[in-house]
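Example record

Each entry pairs one chain with its bound ligand, heme C.
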Amino acid sequence: MKIKYLLPALFLLSTGVTAVLAAEKQTPPTDYHKAQWDPLHFPPAIDSATNEQCLNCHQEILQRKVLASSPAGVPATSTLAWYQTLETYEGPQETFHRRHLSTPYAKKIMDMKCTTCHQGSNPREEAPIPPDLKNTRFTLRKQVNPKTCLMCHGSFPDYKRMGLPSHWNESRDMFQNNCLLCHAGVRTNRHKVNFLKPEAIEEAGKKSADVCFGCHGGRQWYRISYPYPRHAWKGMAEEIPDWAKDRPTESDPRFRTKQQQAQK
Ligand code: HEC
Ligand code: HEC
Ligand code: HEC
Ligand code: HEC
Ligand code: HEC
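Structure tokens for the complex follow.
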């Protein structure tokens, strides 16, 4: 056989062999597989799953601890990230999940569920072929849609729209470092979603603007700001500014409270 035919032939032979091997290796589903493919992981069941249901199998999520020191030997107690210098940051280093679900500050201002972030990504279909543009839940090789994070980790919204002379980092002193100087009267209908505690946020925001700034620029992972819904408020001008014309006027349906959903 000429070398030109030998390679494809070898290729065919080898794929045939691996196919046979794979078939032999296949074992019947174990409990592990059953659990991984538990219907609770996927829509529609995940949409109404409770934290308790998820934690039945995933207790480790809230129990894990951060390493005492990095593999290179830097102790966790000696490192502080820039966002950890906000007034609101308390206590020793914690895992990502605990910071959002079980630290005292998280519990005070938020009421996050596993399903606030996890919407049931399919571990097999990391990228659908052909692409399905209608499937807007799909998170392309990620387990969580980064848009969810953007709500609380975006940049400070456009300061010009707020009538501020510059970014909060420069102009905060002119406004007594107090967002409520304006926000006691502007966009007052806020945070009424099923993963936040709106009254507690207002209370805490009165004591420290870092509470407000924390979720609106102070813990910024992204260069953009979230296009928040623009809920009508008392005393709002009738004319809608150009930048707000395509903004929704209500929160995402998946974040509405049970009462709000019942009213629909
Ligand atoms: C019956 C037990 C069980 C329940 C209930 C369960 N899980 Fe899982 N989950 C598993 C197992 C097993 C895996 C596979 C773990 C692995 O491969 O490390 C898994 C994997 C995951 C993963 C990683 C998926 C990936 O792509 O690697 C996430 C995220 C997850 N579960 C979230 C949840 C959430 C949120 C809930 C509640 C809605 C939930 N699980 C309920 C058993 C369960
Ligand atoms: C603030 C958003 C958020 C919340 C709330 C959240 N998760 Fe996660 N979770 C993530 C992110 C982000 C990852 C990492 C995803 C990746 O690596 O692609 C993750 C990873 C996981 C994993 C797989 C990796 C691991 O660390 O073992 C499991 C299992 C999981 N989460 C379960 C849960 C459960 C159970 C809850 C509720 C008790 C929960 N999560 C709440 C965002 C969240
Ligand atoms: C509802 C608002 C909210 C959402 C949504 C949210 N976060 Fe956070 N995140 C916070 C708050 C508040 C803190 C700071 C808690 C503190 O200072 O104790 C935080 C802290 C963090 C930290 C720092 C943890 C530490 O201890 O150093 C990381 C990293 C982070 N978030 C990433 C994410 C990612 C990734 C997502 C999306 C999967 C996400 N967050 C979604 C509010 C949110
Ligand atoms: C000088 C008054 C003023 C101050 C101070 C101020 N804001 Fe605003 N803010 C506004 C105005 C005005 C709007 C736009 C109202 C509208 O929708 O027409 C706005 C809008 C917003 C929005 C919605 C942005 C969007 O894209 O929909 C957020 C979030 C916000 N402000 C947070 C804050 C936070 C957090 C602080 C403090 C760190 C703060 N603001 C300080 C006046 C102010
Ligand atoms: C834990 C994170 C968090 C904190 C703390 C926080 N916000 Fe927000 N804020 C959000 C999220 C998430 C939304 C969008 C909610 C939704 O989808 O309706 C939002 C929306 C807003 C909006 C738009 C309101 C609308 O719907 O028209 C304004 C204005 C705002 N926040 C100002 C503030 C002010 C002022 C404070 C302090 C008193 C504050 N935020 C504290 C996370 C936070």
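The radius of gyration is 25 Å.
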